Amino acid sequence: MIVLTRKNALFAGHGQGAMNWAMTASFLETRKLNAVDPLAWLTDVLPKHVNVWLASRIEELMHRSYAAKPA
Fold first, then answer.
1. Taking the complete model, does pTM exceed 0.85, yes or no?
2. CA neighbor of 30 nearest in space, from 8, 71, 61, 9
């Protein structure tokens, strides 16, 4: 089992902030476990999300598809 946060969540300041931090940490650690560079993934995915990526193409943003893309 992997422990993502213990003390870091104490400084979230609010319950919702702690939940958001836990979700973000989970996304990043999942990328690391699947051999995907988290920074490269965020750099690619966040602009697509902000520019209203189609829900029918959401699978392209998942780590499974991202790891398969040529560098």
1. no
2. 61
